[in-house]
Every structure is written in C-alpha cells, then in structure tokens.
Amino acid sequence: AAAAAATAPLSTGGGRQLPPKSLASSTIEERRCRELRLQPGAERTLDVHYTPLNVREEGQPTPFRFWKHSFQLVLNVSNAHGAMLERKVLRCYCRLCVSSIELSSEGVDLGDIILGQTKRCTVQVRNLSDVETPVQISYRSNIIRCGKTTFTIPGGEAREVAVLVEPVQVEPGFFKRITFINLLNNSNQCVFVVRSNNIDNPTSTTHSPFFTVSFPDKQRASGIDFGRVVLNSLSVRAFYLKNITNGPLTVALKGKRDDLQVYKATGANTHDGTAGGTTTMTTTTTTA
User: Which pTM value belongs to this model?
Assistant: First the structure.
C-alpha cells in the first residue's frame, strides 16, 4: 500500500487592500491538504478547490484586471513505512481578478420634503473590475425604497439605482445610511447617505393616507376661519381636497350644524376625484 499527501501553496491577506510586496515563490509555504491511502491497483479522484486571497504578481499594475497566475500541487508518494517513493509536481494555472465597486457620490441632501410627498435621487454604482459582480443593498427604513436589493453589474459597467424618500412623520435633520455590499468581496462596502428635512405642510391641517386638505392662504391654519360674519348673511370659505392615491377617491362631507353647508365648486380648474386631482370645496355658514 502507498500513501499520497497533496500540498498546495498558502497565501495570506484579504480584502481590497493588497500587500505592498508581491508574493514571491521563496515565501510560499506548503500546506498539507489531505492524506489518503491507496490499495494496490486502486484509483482515486482528487478535486482541487482553489480560493485565492490576495495574490498579486510582479508587474501587475492594477488588481481589478484579469491577470495570469499559477501555483503548484505537490504529490508526495510514500510506502506503508513512510519511505518516500516518488514526488510529483502538478502546475496549475488560472486568471485572477479582485472584485471592486464604487459609488458616484457619497450622499445627497434632498432638502425639505413635505409629508405625503415623494422625492427621488439616483446614485451610480460602477464595477471597477473585469469580473461580473453581484451587489446587495442594505438599509433599515420604512420611508426609503430602492427597488431591487440585489443585482449584478457586468465587468467595467455601471448601474443607476433610484432612491425614493416618502416621509410619514415630521423629522427635521433626517438621515439614513444605505450600504452597497460587494458579494464577491466582503471588505468592499460603499455607503450612501441620504439627508432630508421632513416637514409638515404649512397649509394642511388634516393628514390622511388617501387625501390632503389645504387652504388658499399660505399661512398654516387650524381650521376654517369665517372671520366677521353679519347676522342673517351668507359667508363662503374655500378649501382644497387632493387625492394622493393611485385611483379614484370618493369622500363624503357634511356639516355638523344646520347652518353649515358644504358644496363642491364647479369650473375648469376642478377635478372629479381622479388620482392626483384636486377638488375645490366651499363651506357656507348663515348666522341668525
């Protein structure tokens, strides 16, 4: 019976930061991977799995381009007593590339965003390497949407990612970090910071996921102010209902007092409750 031990080079390092010096052949250590015993006339198949860490050849200007690399697989054959019978060296070849991505910017400031509104920005993710790279987007927020959280970028190309921000509560000085993770290189993570000033609508007093109520004047109002009203006379004030859903909306309005009535204004500038439309409503009161 004979025993064969397979050894392969062991390289060190990791991540995007490469060692300043190349890995010379004199510094390569041999590591025993597996030892097996073969009966006379028996055959075994060895699967060689090679996982490079940071092996950079001399004269290679950039790690993001494919370059040729080679390593040795050594088979030491000995008998049952441990005496060396034969030594075989298998030369292995491959093409290596360090996967890396970068963002077109580090962040964006969207400024003021009124509750119920949506603002959009884009960031470009560029693949600096020759190898096709899968990217994962990681963030925790209920007001930010980025579409697909995992996508693939071909070598040397870029992909534009849209970021939507839709605030649901007043939050001045809002910021959120969005992390783009290179799934082929865990040390290569890019952070995109989204900032905004989420404020309330100064002309709106009622908040609903279906519609907004606003007033003609730009000053914030706590309700409808009829001002000075003469007895037995009619006073009219207007307010706006805006449909913020994706479909038609029907809203029932009525006054809680007999002397208060609600009407729908008609004209070229009014809508019928369709998605995104604004309807002008008028309220009248008669004092007795």
Answer: 0.56
